Amino acid sequence: MTPESKSLLNIFVLGLGFMFMFTAFQTCGNIEQTVIKSFNSTEFHGSGYTSMAIIYGVFSASNLIAPSVVAIIGPQLSLFFSGLVYSGYIAMFIHPFTWSFYTASVFVGIAAAVLWTAQGNLLTINSSDSSIGRNSGIFWALLQFSLFFGNLYIYVAWHGKVHISDKDRQTVFISLTIISLVGNFLFFLIQRTETEVAPSEESESPLPGDTCESDSVVVAPQGLGSQALLAFRKSIQLAMTKEMLLLSISIAYTGLELTFYSGVYGTSIGAMTVFGDNAKSLIGLSGIFIGVGEILGGSVFGMLNQCNQYGRNPVVLLGLVTHFLAFYLIFLNIASDAPLAPEEGTQLQAFIPPSMELALFCSFLLGLGDSCFNTQLLSIVGFMFRDDSAPAFAVFKFVQSIAAALAFFYSNYLQLHWQLLIMVLVGFTGTLSFFVAEWMVVSCRRNSDYDSI
């Protein structure tokens, strides 16, 4: 087997492992608030929104230590042990306790930082400059299929159920735990390549700075024990550059709407009693339509990056328009108290007669708009900070997870229309700041072309 075919096989195995893992975990996140409402026990008083806030809050802080963990035990074992923590979190729902619920949330936050750092490391090791776009597309598509399969299972398992019994909950979470474990063990099929850069070579790269007029300071080579400190310093300096500060608003928006489509919107649909006995199963169907939008958008806009004639701004603008349309239709269709409704649901209606078809169409729009923002943010961050991609994407995940944690926290208290308003304001501001950052990239490219002439 040639090195190129081995690397491509590794990318497929990596994508499949994440597909199985997040088929389980994203489905768990989508249904956990609904499951908790149905769980009658004096021993349990947890909130799904609070749990996800803890996960993303710890996730953001743990990005500072994750590179050191991956450097010590390697990316493959990092993926496996992090995946086991994810599986433990899912298995906890078979019989949850308040203490185990929130403790597992903390550990998953730490594991998430290690998992995604190891993923980025393996993707880079198994890619060349010419294949990184293709390999990123393959991984993205396989990952987004997790939304489709997991939620299809929930739709079939919960179809026609008004109340989620203990047996229903246990059956679903035992199945999801097994699916997650399959993904964990797939990581052992990843083969070692010869393209990994030695730690001493990595430490010689300059600190992050501007793409065109770099203010970076070259740092002398460091020993292995200084790698963590060096990575931390690089991340802090990169976070303070004007490009990353501009992009941070857009990145924060992806965190807010990640919270909305992965937890709040499914819960809101399941709380609409006017949808009848199918309301709970619609949570799964909503996730399927989000996944279809993600896969379609990721495929189309990933290919557009290969022929970047008009830049990234039109795709981001399309994402904003798509999301604003979705938010407006959700505002008209879903009751304002739906995210906070008790287990029996809400009797309120919004401004039009509630429509299941419209609710699912909005799910598709949420996924499509999310793919618009994420594909272009990954593209521009990878371009602007290509010499320091690891700390750049650590900052990306840090900002995104902080925003997601904040959104899951306020989801415990704010009605639907206030949550939509926050996303409208941040989305609009983030789009404008993205336009400015893209203009800086275009100016940089033109200056570079002029200098080469």
UniProtKB/TrEMBL annotation:
Sorted UniProt keywords: Membrane, Transmembrane, Transmembrane helix
Membrane protein topology class: Multi-pass membrane protein
Chief location of this protein within or outside the cell: membrane
Protein name: UNC93-like protein MFSD11
Localization, UniProt: Membrane
Superkingdom in the source lineage: Eukaryota
Protein family: Belongs to the unc-93 family.
InterPro entries in the cross-refs: Ion_channel_UNC-93, MFS_trans_sf, UNC-93-like_regulator
Source organism per UniProt: Ameiurus melas (Black bullhead)
SUPFAM superfamilies per UniProt: MFS general substrate transporter (SSF103473)
Transmembrane spans: 7-26, 46-65, 77-95, 101-125, 137-158, 170-190, 244-262, 282-304, 316-335, 358-385, 392-410, 416-437
GO CC term, one of those recorded: membrane
